[in-house]
Task: structure prediction
Amino acid sequence: MLLIEYPKCSTCQKAKNYLVSKKIAFETRNIVEEKLNQKELHRLIQKSGKDINRFFNTSGLKYRELKLKDKIQTMSYEEKLQILSTDGMLVKRPLLELDDIVLIGFKEKEWNNSLGI
Result:
């Protein structure tokens, strides 16, 4: 199980504390220091079954700086992948990758269901 996080993010900290409290073993990856490349992003998106737009951190400063709210609707899938791969702060976090699914953001109820808790 891999937790893709930004350690200073309060939601990521909650997710990490949740996993520790449930005694669930996991590895971490700092998304800012070790960005996801386009191939990794594509694999995570496919595995999640969600639309690529769900992978954007829409409340982030970088998202607003780049005015992506206005641009995202007309961008192709490849363009979205490319921009997401340029900066880990553009990616919604945390991401929890399990064998067969990817969870986007931390919602305790969803995580409980997915982890069988």
In short: The first helix runs from residue 10 to 21. The beta strands are 2-5, 27-30, 95-97, 102-104. The two ends are 15 Å apart (CA to CA).
